[in-house]
Fold this sequence. Notes:
It contains 12 helices and 13 strands. By secondary structure, it is of the alpha/beta class. Helix 5 (136-144) links the parallel strand 3 and strand 4.
Amino acid sequence: MNKENKAFSVRPAYRVGTVQEYYFSKKLKEVAAMNAAGKRVISLGIGSPDLPPSEVAVKTFQREVARPDVHGYQPYTGMPELRRGYATWYEQWYGVTLDADREVLPLIGSKEGILHVSMAFLNPGEGVLVPNPGYPTYSSVSRLVGAELVPYTLEASRGWQPDFEALERLVAEREAALCPPIKLMWVNYPNMPTGADASDKLLERLVDFGRRHGIVICHDNPYSFILNDHPRSILAVKGAKEVCIELNSMSKAHNMPGWRMAMLASNAQFVSWILRVKSNVDSGQFRPMQSAVVEALKAPREWYDGMNAVYRRRRVLAERIMDALGCQYDRKQVGLFLWGRVPVSAQSGEALADRVLQQAHVFITPGFIFGSAGDQYVRISLCCPEEALEEALERVKMKIEK
């Protein structure tokens, strides 16, 4: 007897409904379609460094990958040499002493690290402070783990720094209302997308805020070497290690975004909790890449100076594009992008970015994707050769009216 085919439907987990496809994932499909139609879009959107890693890192990888004994699984905590390399790097550039065996954890990219940290610390319903504007992954990952998003606004008038009085009121109001506790706060300086740099005073206030309220301060720190004369780590603040986690990355300052090599540092207890999550998710990193990173971390100041010389020339052209669009921006910005407020006539950053894409075939990032506080802004990436930036400038001048 034939059984009737029964109609059925499969539904995804509820968490899938809490997030959308990443903006750049969707937008780059549109850009690809325009390129397929022969429109040759110049992309100034994503912060993916186009410069190569150091020569010694590449040669080390080439040598190591030819060995027959390096292709197996690696330790979840990375090679001891890699952990020691990260610890030495922190001592040299940030003045932070780390126990390489207990306080350093290599990551397959800091974006993945955001998920590991969130899974290790956030229960469903608990609060997590996320900046607005801020890196979208802080919010999307918090939703995926079922935490309650508690946005805090960054404003240009405050130098894109938190309003600590408002944060104190927020914590007090939640306690009075018997809301679940705020467990975690995401911060990011030098800031993406605004380019605002941290001061020692800001980092000290963040540590103090976290210690007094029992909130883990998670500092995402991949931009501290880009157009920045004073790299800072929140872990340099006295007592910070007790309450702070810092993520860092080889993607930006060492031109290794596709390598997915990153790390986090904190106290031994926090690191052990995060390792419990991580060890159930991945199986370590390819050993030749770890060896290459060990060498990349030894880069002298001249390496960073040479890279920044390129970015300074590109930054001048990015500023000229902003001028041509009638945008206002702070010349003191640091990092890999230029953040500008659009003119009133543009209506919004999204409207201006869409017009620039359709009319000038230049892709810039609208600020709304970083939160409502970025609605009137656009962002230009410096990860583009000078020749392309010059062409983008000419297209904008010809096609876009202020």
